[in-house]
Amino acid sequence: MRRITRIATVGVASAALALTATACGNKSSSDAGSDSKEAGAAIAYDIGGRGDQSFNDAAYAGLAKAETDLKIKGSAAEPSEGESDADKVQRLTELARSGNNPVIGVGFAYAPAIKKVAPKFPKTTFGIIDDSSVTGKNIANMVFNEEQGSYLAGVAAAKVTKSKTVGFIGGVETPLIKKFEAGFAQGVKETDPSVKVLSQYLTQPPNFDGFSKPDLGKAAAQGQLDKKADVVYAAAGLAGSGSIEATAQAGKWAIGVDSDQYSQKGLAAYKDQILTSVTKDVADSVYNLIKSVKDGTPQTGEVRYGLDKDGVGLADSNPAYTKMADVVAAVEKAKKDIVDGKITVKTTP
């Protein structure tokens, strides 16, 4: 697979120009779809696109693994700035007509488009990450218990804060991102009720710049730092990189999201201040769906990834984190209590 050009902002290419590789087994452009065992696989990126060091890059990692392990060819399509649902419909249609199977929409924003496109390609499996609202016989809903991983981040934040003030930054105020906030705030408060949690969202729907503009994340983090926050957790996609930058430059602790951001090359300059990251196994969810199609038993319906199966978790790549024995112990205890049902994590703030 030819690599996709890295981007720093949304909108470097239209859907028609953003396909970066052709899939194998393209037998027909008919709406009937293609043979699931012969077709390649495709992903359509969310806001921020490839190179966000977070959500989209995790999806790409799953596709890349499938190419290597399963010997399939992949395609990928970038979002365009200010695009409509009609643009997403066109993108998914083009990917399916090119013979790709499965076709995966990275993010809940693809729900309306998949609802329209999936019935037209009954032999093609469509996957959607972070959404369970749209269903169908050929649709797999890959969803995560983000609130559980965020609870662990809250535990860690409450244990390391010295100012007794921590921050949460959400990219766009949607039900999905509120799950991150809810879990984080609960983890903080149940670990140390005296710690104050500052919460802020960068944009409101239908403005989704809060997932794609690093300057917004940087400004929000600076505002929280000015209010004495010494730990800042951002669930904001590409915008979160701005939050990490501001927090690291201030010598405070940043908590990453989706991918293990300590290990992301684009954030290497700030890695020492990335305490940990709330991870979602988006890569495996993409890989598992592709493998299921190749094996002839495609996943459909809800496929949930929670703390019990390490579908979400807390990264421990930073040596500074692993040396904090009391923090690690508190996080491990909280993880066990969640898995054992002793702690129920809220999904709304």
TrEMBL record:
Q: Name one Pfam family in it.
A: Bmp
Family annotation (Gene3D superfamilies): 3.40.50.2300
Q: Where is the signal peptide?
A: 1-23
Q: Which domain of life is it from?
A: Bacteria
Looking at the UniProt record for this protein, which Gene Ontology cellular component terms does it annotate, in alphabetical order?
plasma membrane
UniProt keywords, alphabetically = Cell membrane, Lipoprotein, Membrane, Signal
Which InterPro entries does this chain map to? Answer: BMP_lipoprotein (IPR050957), Peripla_BP_I (IPR028082), PnrA-like (IPR003760)
Q: Belongs to which family? A: Belongs to the BMP lipoprotein family.
Q: Where is the ABC transporter substrate-binding protein PnrA-like domain?
A: 47-333
Keyword Iron-sulfur present in the record's keywords: the answer is no
**Membrane-topology annotation of the record:** Lipid-anchor
Top-level taxonomy: Bacteria, Bacillati, Actinomycetota, Actinomycetes, Kitasatosporales
SUPFAM superfamilies recorded: Periplasmic binding protein-like I
Keyword Ribosomal protein recorded: no
Q: What is this protein called?
A: ABC transporter substrate-binding protein
